[in-house]
Amino acid sequence: MGPSKYDPQFHHRKSIRLQGYDYSLAGMYFITICAHKHTHHFGHIVVGAGLAPAHLAQDSKSQEEAHMILNDFGQIAHNEWNGLPNRFKNSFLREFQVMPNHIHGIIGIDHNYKPAADEPVYAISDIVGAYKSLVANGCLDVYMRNWEMKASNVSGSSASIRAGAGTSPAPTMGKIWQRNYYEHIIRDEESYNKIANYIVNNPANWKTDQFYTVNP
Fold this sequence. Notes:
CATH architecture: 2-Layer Sandwich
Number of strands: 7
Largest sheet: 4 strands, antiparallel
Radius of gyration: 20 Å
Number of domains: 1
CATH class: Alpha Beta
Shape: globular
Structural class: alpha+beta
Order of helices and strands: EEEHEHHEEHHEH
CATH superfamily: Transposase IS200-like
């Protein structure tokens, strides 16, 4: 099967959560979380043997050789996703991809997992909410460390930075994520294969992706 392109049935501007559906039930879910204002927070796509930036690539062969290059924020987004099953024991992960301004992933709820008597049963919304917070907090830590490093080069003292002596307040990092997220219940193997293929090929299809933007 060839690379899947964006399918509007999987991504709607409004929430596609089903009213009354118990999202802690066993199953698999296709999750998309977008960066605030589609800003390229997480890195960039390179293509072709020479690893040219995506906006310079023209031929289809180069597109097939596309790779996502993670920056510090992107590495945090990648690592926190992979760590979710350690925090949420009833979850498991399948295909996942960090893109410049969004992430795609498949999360499963394990119906064989038996929680302890005092252990909560987490729903998809709990897991995604925690993931967004973990990534945002991790990015803020990196942002502040970088700001302190730059400011200390000017003041000559990291201690004076933390004390606020002779420096201006740290700038605001801004939001990492959009408020909501997109999800789709994977109901059968055909749907799973289509979505998994779409996720894996997302870097190669970046220029035609629904969320494609040129970073300012």
